[in-house]
Amino acid sequence: MKLKVEGLTFSYENRNVLDSIGFSVKEGEFVSLLGPSGSGKSTILKLLTGVLPADQGRILVDDKPIRGLSQHFAYMPQNDLLFPWKTILDNVCLYGQIHGSLEAMRQEAKGNFPEFGLAGYEDSYPSQLSGGMRQRAAFLRTALCKADILLLDEPFGALDVITRGEMQDWLLGIHRKMNRTVVLVTHDMDEAIYLSDRILILNQSPARITDEIVVKERKRDRQWLYEQGELRGNIYERIMAGAGEERDNGRTVDTNRCPRAYGDEGRTG
């Protein structure tokens, strides 16, 4: 197992935010954390990066315990955080500049600019790019960190709905090519359905993982997503149940209950 989280508990100002969170992520898997606002989804990512210390619990990568800051994780927040006085090439190579491998990273980054839709913008500044292009640059900066696991904290939340959809399409394709392990925090059910191999649903704070939904479909497109009304309703019901009442921790959804909604057995009309 690439990532394993066991019994993760966190409190802030005498308020219990996370209550014995546990989950695992396979190598190359895309897993989304979905739940009500304030349920601690982003806090989980900060605990993984080591920015915040957990009260209890363990984080393991490749079955080895991780404590504090670790190069196994690369974190991408909602805002692109590009330096306005640096070119796009200099921005995406920040990791190389910090770690003394700038020239090698510049060459690698230039080779990736076409794949990330940034060809010809190497010497441009952030103010000259659209919102979607800035987010692709931020994602390239994250990917160049060489981390095993990418942590994405609502990376498209600040974009308009059309640009957000375009970025989701792009991320779906680039993840297949990169085959990187990804943990995504999102409030968007459609985003979670479209991008994820699995969706973990959190209840209200103090949060626990109450449900797990496996999305089996491999050949995804917008038409397939539009047809997932039953799955969308299923997820909404479980989020609202978690927001309003306590549920058994770790209960897994029986994915055979509604295979046509989100499996690879067929599509609903």
In short, what is this structure?
With 269 residues, the chain is α/β, with parallel strands linked by helices. The chain has helices at residues 41-49, 88-92, 94-98, 102-112, 131-143, 161-178, 189-195, 222-226, 229-244, 259-262; strands spanning 3-12, 15-25, 30-34, 56-61, 64-65, 73-76, 149-153, 181-186, 198-202, 209-214. The chain has a 6-stranded mixed sheet, with helices on both faces.
Would you mind describing this structure in some detail?
The chain folds into two domains: 1-72 and 151-269, Rossmann fold (3-Layer(aba) Sandwich), CATH 3.40.50; 77-146, no CATH class. Helix 5 packs parallel to helix 6. It is globular, with a radius of gyration of 19 Å. It has helices spanning 41-49, 88-92, 94-98, 102-112, 131-143, 161-178, 189-195, 222-226, 229-244, 259-262; strands spanning 3-12, 15-25, 30-34, 56-61, 64-65, 73-76, 149-153, 181-186, 198-202, 209-214. The two termini are 36 Å apart. The strands form two sheets. The protein has a six-stranded mixed sheet with strand order 6-7-8-3-9-10, sandwiched between helices. With 269 residues, the chain is of the alpha/beta class. It is 35% helix and 22% strand.
List the helices and strands and how they pair.
Blueprint lengths: L2 E10 L2 E11 L4 E5 L6 H9 L6 E6 L2 E2 L7 E4 L11 H5 L1 H5 L3 H11 L18 H13 L5 E5 L7 H18 L2 E6 L2 H7 L2 E5 L6 E6 L7 H5 L2 H16 L14 H4 L7
Parallel strand pairs: 3-8, 3-9, 6-7, 7-8
Antiparallel strand pairs: 1-2, 1-4, 4-5, 9-10
Helix pairs in contact: 5-6
Taking the alpha carbons of the first and last residues, their distance comes to: 36 Å
CATH classification, class level of the largest domain: Alpha Beta
Structure summary, number of beta strands: 10
CATH superfamily of the largest domain: P-loop containing nucleotide triphosphate hydrolases
Number of helices: 10
What sequence of helices (H) and strands (E) makes up the elements? EEEHEEEHHHHEHEHEEHHH
Q: What best-fitting shape do the alpha-carbon axes yield? A: globular
Query: Considering DSSP H and I runs of 4 or more, what fraction of the residues is helical?
Result: 25-40%
Tell me the fraction of residues in β-strands, as a range. Answer: 15-25%
CATH fold-level assignment of the largest domain? Rossmann fold
Total count of domains:
2
Strand order of the largest sheet: 6-7-8-3-9-10
